[in-house]
Design the sequence.
């Protein structure tokens, strides 16, 4: 029990520090200090900093993609599936609000962390996109939805969702809004995103 607890503390400390400072600016010494253990223990559990980062990232992405990969299998309409995709990704960002800025920074600097992130995404994305495209093609014939490439559909969703979280700090500070009001605005934005994306699928 204590072993699992310490492993979880190390993961939590690593996630917080990586998101705050970036992969290259965090050492295993800092992670150990924040987790309340020695550096040797960090290396004992996770070997290297890249492997530790991969574990942190993998845990977060696995939760999201396990839900996403189930969506094409369901019997819902394409519009209902799109709503679920938006909900799942939006919830991921709510749980990890610093993630977009972190990844953009790592991508800009082309760090080892971004390479790990890219490979993790590729391990899931191929099957998800392929399965989603099959759903789109089928419902285009049966339900008359607008023809769209799965990549374009997901690109639209990611762009709209991510921008909301990049802009969120301005919403709260510039307009001096209370936290409850900020949450209401975020919920409103999610509803608007669903309307925008679903409207793009309908043939006028």
Sequence:
């Amino acid at each position: 029990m204590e072993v699992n607890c310490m492993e979880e503390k190390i993961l939590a400390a690593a996630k917080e520090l990586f998101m705050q400072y970036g992969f290259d600016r965090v050492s295993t010494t800092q992670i150990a200090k924040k987790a309340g253990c020695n550096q040797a223990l960090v290396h004992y559990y996770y070997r290297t900093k890249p492997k530790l980062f991969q574990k942190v990232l993998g845990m977060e992405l696995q939760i999201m993609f396990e839900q996403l990969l189930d969506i094409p299998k369901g019997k819902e309409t394409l519009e209902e599936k799109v709503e679920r995709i938006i909900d799942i990704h939006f919830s991921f960002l709510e749980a990890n609000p610093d993630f977009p800025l972190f990844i953009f920074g790592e991508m800009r600097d082309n760090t080892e962390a971004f390479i790990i992130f890219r490979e993790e995404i590729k391990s899931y994305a191929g099957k998800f996109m392929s399965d989603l495209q099959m759903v789109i093609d089928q419902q285009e014939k049966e339900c008359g939805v607008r023809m769209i490439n799965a990549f374009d559909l997901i690109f639209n969703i990611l762009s709209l969702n991510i921008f909301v979280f990049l802009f969120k700090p301005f919403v709260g500070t510039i307009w001096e809004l209370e936290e409850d009001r900020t949450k209401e605005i975020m919920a409103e934005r999610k509803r608007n995103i669903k309307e925008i994306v679903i409207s793009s699928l309908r043939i006028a």
